[in-house]
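User: My advisor asked me to double-check a structure prediction for MurR/RpiR family transcriptional regulator before group meeting. I don't want to rely on an old file, so could you generate it fresh from this sequence?
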Amino acid sequence: MASLLKEIQSVFSTLSDKEKKIANYILANPEKASRSHIQELAETIGVSISSITRFTKKISCRNFVEMKVRLAGVAELKEEEGIEQQLASSYRDMLTDVQDLGDAEQLQSVLNYITKANRIFIYGLGSSGLAAQELNYRLSRMGFVCEAITDPHLMIIRSTLLTSGDVILAFSRSGQTADLLQSVTKGKEKGAVVVAFTAFGETPLTKLSDVILWTVHPLRNHYLLTGLDLSTLYLIDRISLHFLSEKKREATYLETVDAIKTRET
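Assistant: Sure, here is a fresh prediction for MurR/RpiR family transcriptional regulator from the sequence you gave:
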């Protein structure tokens, strides 16, 4: 499912409505899909066999059988499980998915851009704003010059004043949030590097981005986690731990810990 999940997410925005129905079903029910005959799957989803055949080719499978093989073994939530079991299962699956979606070269590029940035502006609206604030909190405590922007008006103002050497870290699960896209476009015009944290490929955001870090499609956890999901937090932790491994960054971070302790006493 690993590479197949990434393949589905990367082409999702280019799929037809019928193909999106197929993708949504597979993302939500990978185990059922892997055990279904093509006729059975078509009837369950409400599409034609030919639509499924076209879909398999769009996600780089030679045929339906190959797609089933790649789906085989993927765990899904069981309806009879209680809330605790569903949540634990969802977390396990999401950690597996986000690790499998990862690209070491892409991540290293992001780390390099952050390291060399003159200024870092972290964009996010709605629940993505929570991610922006969290990453800003982490990076600022390690000495980076950064700011989380979660207001669309302030976002376009900041983008208008960006220069070459600045970096935008843009959180948007859909990659199609209009206010964020307007600001990212302006920032790109001003010479800023753009990094996208997103669950969908071939979107306006990914087309504007220099680097993409993938989060997990919300249907993989049946929309149980609709705010700051674990896959986004995983990426934030991964970036944070990289920089905390540097002695100077760690010392700066610990200095802020001492400052907070002193304030509390």
